[in-house]
Amino acid sequence: MTGSTSSAPDRRSGAPRLTRADLDALPNYVPGRSPADLARELGLPEAIKLASNEVPYGLLPGVAEAVTEAVTEAHRYPDMGVLALRSALAERYGVDAERIATGCGSVALAEHLVRATCLPGDEVVYSWRSFEAYPIIAATSGATSVRVPNDAGHGHDLAAMAAAVTDRTRLIFVCNPNNPTGTSLRRAELDRFLGTVPDDVLVVLDEAYREFVTDPEVPDGLVTYGDRPNVVVLRTLSKAWGLAGLRIGFLVGQPEVAATVRKVVTPFSASLAAQAGALAALAEADEMRRRCALVVAERDRMIEALRKRLPAGPAGAGGAGSGGVPESQANFVWLPLGDASVPFAQACEARGIIVRPFAGEGVRVTIGTPAENDAFLAAADSVL
Ligand code: PMP
Q: Would you say 315 and 330 are in contact if contact means Cβ atoms under 8 Å apart?
């Protein structure tokens, strides 16, 4: 182990190749930097992490106790069928438990879905830029990525995505709201798009940020499309429910799709702690909603403040301000800083604030507490 984050692994010359050559060029998934490390490096009492779209208010009440209690039995395997959690989810979302599969985070389920649908050479269509795991998942599964560029407003270009479907397409990711740009798709356009997708292509509606959506025109996939045979809705407990470190997500699809995914899932990947923590969190839905409302109020304040600092430039001009800061229905905002993205993030980091740059494109800033957001705005003022 080198701990290196470069995408090309070191190879001793002359050593036999043991792993797939096509994976050498694959980018690594980039986790947010540890704030403790940064604080140590800068000699600060603490650093602020606004890089991984976590909610900043800690565990929901009762979660720590439930996990502590559960791990007293951790010498035993967890329930592989995840029955208690699946039935709690079924009850909460008004669907049959047979339609639910859980995974080690929704990212694992995204991977399982590709494995459950694609043979080598089959195509996975998604908008780009979107969730960075999609290309990694497609490549590791041997599928072919078909990336459809985002539209000028940083969102999915659904007409172009529909046009990109071929007879090799097996799966389409639709990320709503989209990570990292925060943009979202409304009911009418999604209806139209779903109407064009062939019946034998699975549409995965990735709704990791659903709980932060306040626009009534942005449909809840479970409510609006839950009964469409070729739609699967992906949700996570990592964001609004505050369980990123426990690793648990779920999907709702047709019973046959969910059953196939349950076969593909790595056995026991929903740990004892994750199952117990998720059950306890789901019992605190009111508190979850209260926290999301705080995040949403701060999101709206941040967008207003950042739009003043980054006014919309001429369309397509690139660089700072081009297109302005898009609306966000998620718990983060997107700053389309173009080539200034990496220097901006580095300058924030030098001030003890970790944000997430996408080189040449933009910077994603997670909504933190009011004090954290103020600290970020102050840093942005001195950098911009
Ligand atoms: N989908 C999207 C759009 C995401 O942004 C993320 C997390 N960054 C995930 C899925 C995966 O989340 P998790 O694996 O923690 O459930």
A: no
